[in-house]
Amino acid sequence: MKDKDRDLRLASYNLRKCIGLDRRRDPGRSLDVLNSIGADIIALQEADRRLGHRPAALPREMIERGSDFVPLELGANSASLGWHGNAILLRKGLEAGDIRCLDLPGLEPRGAVMATIGGLRVIGLHLGLMRRHRREQLAAIADMLAGLETRPTVILGDFNEWSARQGFEPITGDFRLHAPGLSYHSAAPLAPLDRFALGPGIELRDAGVVQTPQARRASDHLPVWADIRAPADFGQKPHPQQRAATAGERAATAPGAGTGEAPARGASFR
To answer: Which residue ranges form the domains of the chain, and what is each CATH number?
Structure first.
């Protein structure tokens, strides 16, 4: 991150549980791809396996030992890295507060995760396979944001939407959608499923899709990245990290640009 202009790189990557196109589960390869992006904040999807206690597909110890990232504490148990497979990694030295997890409506279990880093609110998500459910899920996020204090916000992740225009209606009044390029399928990219939604006060500086040979093998999605102009207070220590209640508990207690390889860079709620 550059102190002078406070540019910040965000990235999103659907890990596919670290199973590559060669059908091998190789978390080390996935971590190599993450390290190549040069991001400050990364939203992950499918970071956990689906069965049992949903153990992390990309182990926390491997991340902490083999990268400059620290995973936020989002798992429902000590085995999981994320919430419904959604995880957030922060570059070491950054601190997060107001960490929340949200259950999203729909036929299949889906969720979103949120954290505030300095003055920036980041929401990572993985939307459902049906457009009707995706609209409901985005509406749930919009309703959640309506009850929070106003601050610069970015929503990023696997939106699972093939259309460039339809399906985003619940958030288009407050967010600008940007798809850096075709990110799915990694073997022959056809669709921009992985996107960024930028709220007021967020300036997009550059964006792209990582298309290295390793990224093309590591998952069926390619990572996407976006360089944004961060809020002026980015990097300042936020309020102490906190856990929110489950969606039911909160309701009961709440008061009345281009594609290509990423260029190198320096250094219900729960």
So the answer is: 7-253 (3.60.10.10)
The predicted pLDDT at position 256 comes to 34
What's at 250, amino acid-wise?
R
Pick the closest to residue 45 from 252, 240, 245, 193 (CA basis): 193
Edge-to-edge strands, sheet with 153-158:
96-104, 110-117, 120-126, 153-158, 194-198, 176-178
**pTM (2 decimals)?**
0.86
Q: CA-to-CA distance for 127 and 130, rounded, in angstroms?
A: 9
Q: Which amino acid is at 186?
A: S
- How does pLDDT run across 16-55, given as a tens digit for each residue? 999 999 999 999 999 999 999 999 999 999 999 987 688 9
DSSP 26-89: -HHHHHHHHHHH--SEEEEES-B-SSTT--BSS-HHHHHHHSSEEE-S--SSTT-SSBTTBEEE
